[in-house]
Amino acid sequence: MEQRSKGITELVLTYARSEPPRDVRGIMRLSVLDWAACGIAGAQGGGFAAWASTLDAAGPATRFDGRMGSVSEAALVNGTLSHALDFDDTHFAHIGHPSVAVVPAALAMAEMASASMATMVDAALVGAETSVAVGMWLGRGHYQVGYHQTATAGAFGATVAAGRILDLSDTQMRHALSLCSTMASGLKSQFGTMGKPLNAGLAARCGVEAARWAASGMTSVWDGLSGPLGFGETHLGAGELPVFAWRMGDVSHKFHACCHGLHASLEAVRGSDLSTARRIEVFTHPRWLTVCNQPAPDTGLGAKFSYKQVMAMAALGIDTGDIAQFTDDCAMRPDVITLRDRVHVSQDDTLSEMQARVVIDGEAHFHDLRTPLAYEARQERIREKACALVGARADDLWAAIEAEDLSRFAGLLKS
Q: What is the pLDDT of residue 63?
């Protein structure tokens, strides 16, 4: 008889069958809106149209590119397109983007099963919680060595999301997770290329397929996550088991169209007048210095990874929440370049990855992205962001989410 170990798999099963708290469910609904707006905009301007057109299997699931497709291909396409602009939510507990992996899987399965909006949201939520918990269990070493947590931990979250909609038994869910463990993948070497958003799509597709295969009777090892030669052991997992907790209430939504490492510094100076500043000093966690500290970007893409650039933009009143502002022309504006020279960036080992301190002519400003944001304020900012991305359709999307109208919501996703 196989040994039923206590560990990460048991924790994942607990998430899979749990009833989410009302407040966290509300945050997940906002993440669904945020995900939808990012995906629609990504389909229109992410550069993936030719690639998506090669995926043409017919089926019941809605795709951002306007097609209806198979459940697997819809999850793949929607996961990829929603991460194409890198403007989606992030959870810093494991440094991953939860929604782009789990929501596409939950939506595709919900459409196939004619499930309700509430069922889809709850499935996405327990999937997101799973991805964060698995990511924490894998640990920073897994991420630092080169694995992309959005894809690796996200695949397990997508499996749980899809499996919940299929109402898998605990045994079936174990097999689904173990099937996922032999498929989950994603490397940070893809960052800066079309391969990075593809990682999210692959995670979503992996989850859908693992869950459907387990539902059909396919079996696997009893514990492909933490068992001998399992995913953790072979992918540099630390194996430190997190406690059961609902963590999506701490998810960080992107309100600036740039690398998330820049957001704490931008939030620190939000509402401040930088136009006459002679010296702007940015202090940040050391890890961001190798990620988003390009000193003199000359492209719109490079501008998204530059403290100097975004601080100069803020000083000139250029909206860093508007993705259309991150252009080659903006990066090369003479007034922007002049202001960049006034920005000085230093590491501060006492700051966390979610904190920043900005000193403007001797006056210090601090922000921690973990600072609780009231639900009403979060909703307002996400809806404003969605409107900036997709116009009036954002209000229709939110109305469909609030009205529990999954078919209406899905219909609005088509570009």
A: 98
Q: Report DSSP letters for 230-243, one per residue.
A: -HHHHTT----PPP
Please state, in angstroms and rounded to a whole number, the distance separating the CA atoms of residues 257 and 381.
13
What 3-state DSSP class applies to 368? Answer: strand
23 vs 7: CA distance, rounded Å: 27
Give 175-204 as a 3 state SS string: HHHHHHHCCCCCEHHHCCCCHHHHHHHHHH
Q: Which CATH architecture group holds 260-368?
A: 2-Layer Sandwich (3.30)
The residue extents of the domains of the chain are: 8-252+376-412, 260-368
Q: What is the pLDDT of residues 27-75, one digit of tens each?
A: 999 999 999 999 999 999 989 999 999 999 999 999 999 999 999 999 9
**Radius of gyration over every alpha carbon of the chain, rounded to an integer in angstroms:** 21
Topology (CATH level 3) of domain 8-252+376-412? 2-methylcitrate dehydratase PrpD (1.10.4100)
Q: Please answer whether residues 95 and 40 qualify as being in contact, where contact means their C-beta atoms are separated by less than 8 angstroms.
A: no
> How far apart are alpha carbons 375 and 106 in whole angstroms?
24
For the chain, what is the largest distance between any 2 Cα atoms, rounded to a whole number of angstroms?
Answer: 73
Question: Please, which pLDDT band fits residue 6 given cuts at 50, 70 and 90?
Answer: confident
Supply φ then ψ for residue 356, to 5 degrees. -155, 150
List the one residue out of 124, 221, 228 whose CA is nearest residue 174.
Answer: 221
CA-CA distances (angstroms) from residue 36 to 33, 261, 274? 5, 23, 33
Give all strands (DSSP E) within 27-128, no chain letters.
61-62, 68-69
